[in-house]
């Protein structure tokens, strides 16, 4: 065989190797582009869908307050709101599974109209409060409680102004305090010894105007019994500025109902009554603050006060599918927004699964 | 002898072609990286715009600029933006002159992919217009 043929054979072999390797190389290099086109499109669509959930009021537009109407289109924005990311207090409240009027995920998913895109909505205050009972001192007429309060955001301390209320039966007392830049503070509250039973400490904290959080600490006052568990006497469900109390027994009724915000508190008037359900009207308070609704009454057996409470809007809440499955986690897109509910700012995370 | 030289040239051609193809592949990599960052930039842009909209509710941002209260603006931005995001905030007047005489920033933006969001603010008492620019980047 002449040497030129060997050269040609070698060149052809190199060429074939070149073509094959370049095919593999080009495919490897182009694959991310192709994937990017898909994933980029999915992410953009998910982002727009997340915004849609928070910018559109859905239909009927008052589906939050009107529980008899069938939800046609899912959206959380307040009806006729001129402010972006302002959510309806009742639509948000209905996402909480503990509310009597809660919306099921299937209803919301069907109304959203995306066939294969599951979602999850988490709404919570921008920062958190932790309350612990530090000490208590007694004198002949009252007991003074000292509580340690810490405020933190994403596990880092933040300074906050505190407004605290203590409630037992019909008795309310309040005190102001603050947490330092290390996020630590304390507050003292005195309750009369003439009352006994479950008392609540309500703590509102503000780190910037309209950025608030709250915590409720339940403790026993002047009693050997532990504080009653939440829901033992009644389940409270606020909606459409009406508080519904579903009683667990006909004998233990709510005698006093109150609403608390950062700056104000009011007694609630009863607007309806059956053997196991009580209704109270909630005033439309303009204070930029979450509302905490407290219902108290006397336990007929122990003659001690019990206390039940709920927040309005009923946050924090976690609505929708859980994306912790190993197949879900890889394809989920998470978007974080600041939203307004009743003029106060909350953090909202919308997680959308890949289609 | 002439035939041998032709064969060598063909081999050389093949190697040249290989080098061209692989260098082209190497060059496409930075483009992919740039494409990949676009997702993060879109998320940052949405985040920044959402924070500016909330900061400007009820004319708060315009009022703070009118008061030249840069500390309060910085404090609110630090609370509203999630941890892990660096920012730099600049306020311009109608003539596009910088108004904030002290830095309103947190973290370091140098060497990072920075997203810039411009936003028009109206002060509602005297109807002064301001342009604000919020630059954001992920801390890595």
Report what the structure shows.
The complex is a heterodimer of chains A (355) and B (140). Chain A has helices spanning 3-55, 89-93, 105-112, 326-329; strands at residues 86-87, 119-125, 128-138, 142-153, 156-157, 160-168, 171-179, 184-192, 197-208, 211-221, 234-239, 242-247, 256-260, 265-267, 269-273, 277-281, 291-298, 305-312, 317-320, 332-341, 344-353. With 355 residues, chain A is an alpha+beta fold. In chain A, 41% of the residues are buried. The mean pLDDT of chain A is 91. By secondary structure, chain B is an alpha+beta fold. Chain B has helices at residues 2-55, 60-66, 70-80, and strands at residues 85-92, 104-106, 115-123, 128-138. Chain B has a four-stranded antiparallel sheet with strand order 2-1-4-3. The mean pLDDT of chain B is 84. The chains are: A alpha+beta (355), B alpha+beta (140). At the A-B interface, α1 and β20 of A face α1 and α3 of B.
Q: Choose one word for the global shape of chain A.
A: elongated
Number of strand elements of chain A: 21
In sequence order, what are the helices and strands of chain A, one letter per element? HEHHEEEEEEEEEEEEEEEEEEHEE
Mean pLDDT of chain B: 84
- Terminal Cα span of chain A: 62 Å
**What is the spatial order of strands in the main beta sheet of chain A?**
1-20-21-2-19
User: What is the number of E strands of chain B?
Assistant: 4
Mean pLDDT of chain A: 91
How many structurally independent domains of chain B?
1
CATH topology grouping of chain B: Ribosomal protein S3 C-terminal domain
Widest sheet of chain B: strand order? 2-1-4-3
Portion of residues in helices of chain B? 40-55%
**Uncertain spans of chain A, ≥5 residues at pLDDT below 50?**
none
User: How would you characterize the largest beta sheet of chain A?
Assistant: 5 strands, mixed
Range of strand content of chain A: 35-45%
Oligomer status: heterodimer
Low-confidence stretches of chain B: none
The CATH architecture of the largest domain in chain A would be Sandwich
